[in-house]
Design brief:
Blueprint: E1 4-7, H1 17-26, E2 31-36, H2 38-42, H3 45-61, E3 68-71, H4 85-101, E4 106-109, H5 120-141, E5 144-148, H6 158-165, E6 173-178, H7 188-195, E7 199-204, E8 206-208, E9 213-215, H8 224-234, E10 240-242, H9 253-266
Parallel strand pairs: 1-2, 1-10, 2-3, 3-4, 4-5, 5-6, 6-7, 7-10
Antiparallel strand pairs: 8-9
Length: about 280
C-alpha cells in the first residue's frame, strides 16, 4: 500500500494550512506537503522557525507525516541568471532549514527557467554550477534535493534530465517526478524506469491533453496502470503526493476526488512499500 500525501496548493489560499491538514487527515491522507511561500521569505528568522515548528507539532498531533517541502519561488529566483544567484542561495538555505524543522527529507527545486538569449548547453552548465555550490547547504541540513520536471522550456525529456543528474552528487540530488508534467512530450512510465532510485518524490495529478488542463488522477491522459506497474518494478518507497488545483466551487473536493482516485489506482494490496518516519534511502 502506497503512502498517499497532498500538497498545500490543492487547497485554496483562504483555507489555512492547519485547516487543510485537518481535512487531509480526515479523508485519509497520510502525509502533507508544506510549501515555502513569499511570506515565509519575508518573515523574521525566529518567527519563521517558530511558525514551521508549530506546523510540525500540529501535523504530529494529527499523525500526519511531512516528508517533503515544495516552493514556487524558483520561478522568480532563476538559478540560470547570475544576478539571481544571491536570491536563489537565500531561498535554498531557508527551504533547507525549514525542511529540517519539520523532519522533511526532500525539498523541491525548479532547475532554472529558459532564457532566449542564453544557449541551451549554457543553460545546463549554469544549472549544474549553481546546484554544485548549493550542495553543502543541503548536506548540512540533512535533506535531499528533488529537481522537478516542470514546463520551464528546458530538460523536457528524460534523457536530457538524466544528463543533468549525472553531473550532480547522487547522494544529494535526484528527481522530483511530476507524472502529469511529462505530458505531452514524453511518458511518465519512461521517466520512472530510467531514473529508478534517483526518484526522490512524486507529484500526482493528471493532464487532459484535449483541453491542456490539470486535474485529479484519472481525469486525463496519464497512464496510471503503467505508472503503478513501473513504480512496483523499481521498488519505489517515497511518497505519492497529490498536487491538483482546487475546484472553484468547493475548497475540499479536489483533494477528496484525488485521494479516491489514488486509492483506486494503487489499491490496498499494492506492492509499493509504505514510507516510515525514517529516510527511505
Amino acid at each position: 500500500m502506497v503512502l498517499i500525501g497532498v500538497n498545500a496548493w490543492t487547497y485554496p489560499k483562504h483555507i489555512s494550512v492547519e485547516k487543510a491538514m485537518q481535512h487531509a487527515r480526515s479523508v485519509g491522507y497520510d502525509s502533507f506537503e508544506l510549501t515555502f511561500e513569499q511570506e515565509d521569505l519575508e518573515r523574521d528568522h525566529d518567527d519563521l522557525k517558530s511558525r514551521w515548528r508549530s506546523l510540525k507539532q500540529y501535523a504530529e498531533s494529527l499523525e500526519l507525516l511531512t516528508p517533503t517541502v515544495a516552493t514556487a519561488l524558483y520561478w522568480r529566483c532563476n538559478m540560470i541568471l547570475e544576478n539571481h544567484l544571491e536570491g536563489v542561495t537565500k531561498l535554498f538555505k531557508l527551504q533547507c532549514l525549514m525542511a529540517s524543522e519539520v523532519d522533511a527529507y526532500v525539498i523541491l527545486v525548479v532547475p532554472g527557467i529558459a532564457i532566449a538569449s542564453i544557449g541551451y548547453e549554457d543553460h545546463i552548465n549554469r544549472v549544474v554550477n549553481a546546484l554544485k555550490r548549493l550542495g553543502n547547504i543541503a548536506r548540512d541540513h540533512g535533506v535531499k534535493v528533488g529537481l522537478e520536471n516542470v514546463w520551464n522550456r528546458i530538460l523536457a525529456g528524460p534523457l536530457e534530465f538524466k544528463t543533468l543528474l549525472e553531473r550532480l552528487e547522487p547522494e544529494i540530488y535526484g528527481l522530483y517526478l511530476d507524472v502529469a508534467n511529462t505530458l505531452p512530450h514524453s511518458l511518465a512510465e519512461h521517466w520512472i524506469r530510467i531514473f529508478r532510485e534517483r526518484i526522490f518524490a512524486l507529484h500526482a495529478k493528471d493532464l487532459d491533453l484535449s483541453s491542456m488542463r490539470f486535474g485529479p488522477p484519472l481525469t486525463g491522459n496519464v497512464n496510471w496502470p503503467e505508472i503503478k506497474r513501473a513504480l512496483e518494478e523499481i521498488g519505489y518507497r517515497g511518497p505519492v503526493t497529490v498536487e491538483t488545483p482546487p475546484y472553484p466551487g468547493d475548497p475540499f473536493k479536489s483533494s477528496e476526488d484525488s485521494i479516491s482516485a489514488l486509492k483506486k489506482i494503487f489499491g490496498f494490496d499494492s506492492k509499493l512499500s509504505i514510507i516510515t518516519k525514517t529516510l527511505p534511502f
